[in-house]
Please model this.
Amino acid sequence: MKLSCVINTCCLGPRAHEITGSRTPTPHAWRAFALGNFVLPYYLADANIDEIIVAGEFVEGKGYTYVPCASTHFSCIDALAQRQAGFEASTGDVIVFHHDDHMLDYLFAANLKALGVPEGIGIVLPERRRRTHEGY
Model:
């Protein structure tokens, strides 16, 4: 099974300093630091993730595919368009989608490959848990 991870982002878009998350007042622009310094290096080191695609407004980089997809609505509509662009660029048998401010558990990819997925399932949307805000 080939596992693709599609990360959608607007963190380097023209309005990233103005737009904040739904639960925090943190500007989306701050997510660029987390994505570039934590999420991407972590995924690039995970041998169980076969393909990493960043779709949206970011930068090209070594080890992942960047798919430009500019924000036009500055809402969840852009996130859907970015996910679609990432999906179209992916080559995995299973595709995991998540936002630029999320990170998969360190055993997620290994467990997914070891356990497999039911026949006919090709897209996985992990449950959202925010340890820093919810205390677990």
About this structure: DSSP finds four helices and five strands in the chain.
